Amino acid sequence: MADDREVLREIWDGRVPVCFQLAEQEVNTIQQPDPFYLMVPRFSYFPLITDKVRKHFVRHVHADHQEGEMWLEYNGQSLKWHYPIGVLFDLYAYDSLLPDRKSVV
């Protein structure tokens, strides 16, 4: 029984490495900004971490777009924000190299 609890704890505490990159068409500076890396809980949702992502990229985006909507995509596929991050990882990036790269648009 103790082993089961350890396995359940490891599953519950599972995290996915994610790399966020600002989409090229959104860059308003001379140079592409550095990617933003996070270890995110599998059971979390992207809307809960977008403030961190926005703060990282805000100085590289035109002032008119800084407060606008933001969406994420993976290999050209828009991601559904109401799916848990772990589910999205399993659907789209299960066989890719880590960290999982997301474009911020």
Q: What would your notes on this structure say?
A:
The protein is of the alpha+beta class. The chain is built from 3 helices and 5 strands, in the order αββαββαβ. It starts with a helix and ends with a strand.
Give the gist of this structure.
It contains 3 helices and 5 strands. The chain is an alpha+beta fold.
Describe the secondary structure blueprint for this structure:
Layout: H1 2-12, E1 15-22, E2 36-41, H2 50-57, E3 72-74, E4 77-78, H3 85-92, E5 100-104
Kindly name the structural category.
Answer: alpha+beta
Shape by Cα distribution: elongated
How much β-strand is present in the residues?
Answer: 15-25%
Q: Provide a count of the helices.
A: 3
Task: State the main characteristics.
single chain, 105 residues, alpha+beta, five-stranded mixed beta sheet
